[in-house]
Amino acid sequence: MSKVNLTIDGIKVSVEEGSTILEAAKKAGVKIPTLCYLPEIQSIGACRMCLVEIEGSSKLQCACMYPVSEGMVVKTNTPAVHKARKFVLELILSNHPADCLTCIRNGNCELQKLANELGLREIPYSGERPKARVDSSNPCIIRDTEKCILCRRCVSVCHEIQGVGVIFPQKRGFETAIAPPFDLDLEDMPCTFCGQCLAVCPVGALYEKEYIDQVWQAINDPEKFVIVQTAPAIRATIGEEFGLEAGTRCTGKLAAALRRMGFDKVFDTQFGADLTIVEEANELVYRMKKGGTLPMMTSCCPAWIKFAEHFYPDLLDHLSTCKSPQQMFGAIAKTYYAKKIGIPAEKMFVVSVMPCTAKKFEAQRDEMASSGQRDVDAVLTTRELARMIKEAGIDFVNLPSEKFDEPLGISTGAATIFGSTGGVMEAALRSAYEIVTGKSLAEVEFHQVRGWKGIREAEVEMDGTVVKIAVAHGLSNARFLMDRIREGSCDYHFIEVMACPGGCIGGGGQPISNDHNIYEVRKKRISALYEEDRAMALRKSHENPAIRKLYEEFLGEPLGEKSHHLLHTHYTRRGVSYRRKNIWV
């Protein structure tokens, strides 16, 4: 592709033909403010914050949309540009609540940051505001229309990246609102609760439903034995909430912080991930040998599961029956572990720290109580945990490294990479290969399933059998694969699906970065997980000594009667109907 040369604020820069002024400015090191822009997803000029002057043009132009041309001269720092940007921001703020001190995004709000950078000290305009509405109907996501700035980022992500499309701009002009059709609640829509809308919202219009008070109450209840499990991806992201660089591994500090918060035992969801792999790898081998439904698809991601239930209810037999690591952990904690330490299951309170908002929904599913008690009692996001650590006055950055408690804190490198797209597939292959061949796997890293491509395909030979596999992240990519299965043109044996781009490291409950190129941040987090995997002594789930002991003392064998009862589940044919005034349409 040919190059285009232009000048931005006196800086000469060369970019590829078809680039925008905003992209050229970034290459030149010139910062142009934006609110609605998302790299590779949305450039619509809705917010008008990126206005710039172009020599020879009679009016200001949006840098995020305007294409570069040879010899173009752009100015981003003139009185006219300053005045226009400030005027636009004043209009946005005139229709925005001034409750920054109590807003969940206080200190990490793009609107607040821009107001400070542009030196706004008062709002000269006041008037009527659109009617506000707070939707807290579901266990995962709260939607506050009063704080919405109509940037449409959430709409683009929901439609283009996830292919779900449950929110749209409703009405027109002053009455415009971003909402489901007919202003329905999210719980009445085929929303997957993936939380990607939260991850891109620049303000506090979308945020997770908090369970912080319930967890503190349990910790402070002398009648409760409170244990916590923390998902693999958390160790690579929690540090960002305390000013550390993206991708900083904080495994030891995380365990130390949880212990200081008052949890009775600090465990690792990676134990549940290893257990999931043992069951799932055996399930795959069983299906391939006994003629079960293929391709088998992973079931660790609750947003993906809900997506399949809504949009592909006829294909639910393709899903692995394994519960997710979160739920397997809870079931084992309230049976095997509770008995081992002599604590009644009803007195045990299991808290999960997850990168995912949909995990809150998963924990409340009716199917997730096979032990007679709910597997998991409360789910916190990474952001909620960070708030609790700060509330407790814990100096996270300077904490010493500590280990997770045993036995449910013992894990392998295979479990660590669960947090990255392709990680579940790779972990399963490490175990499935040895189950099928009876041989030790010398090279445990399957680079074929790694990377950022939306759909990745590979073939792995196991004892003379060629196993065809695929990995998809982002529900739009999952939809492509499901359509192929439905039409009979898919010959894979095993498919991994993660709802969030990048996998769990990009979950809706992870730290929100002010860096608009969120995918680069996610790639740094992924690298951290692979680094930790390489540093671990054990890298195959079936070699976890605590897992082996669990089967010897309690479960018996993979896919056995007790495993089936506690560790496996079934799914619900939901369809895509929506409810309006208690009538299904």
TrEMBL record:
GO process terms (BP): ATP synthesis coupled electron transport
One Pfam entry name: Fe_hyd_SSU
Domain 4Fe-4S ferredoxin-type: 139-169, 180-211
GO cellular component term, pick one: membrane
Annotated 2Fe-2S ferredoxin-type domain residues: 2-80
Cofactor(s) essential for the protein: [4Fe-4S] cluster
Name under which the protein is recorded: Ferredoxin
Keywords: 2Fe-2S, 4Fe-4S, Iron, Iron-sulfur, Metal-binding, Oxidoreductase, Repeat
Any GO molecular function: 2 iron, 2 sulfur cluster binding
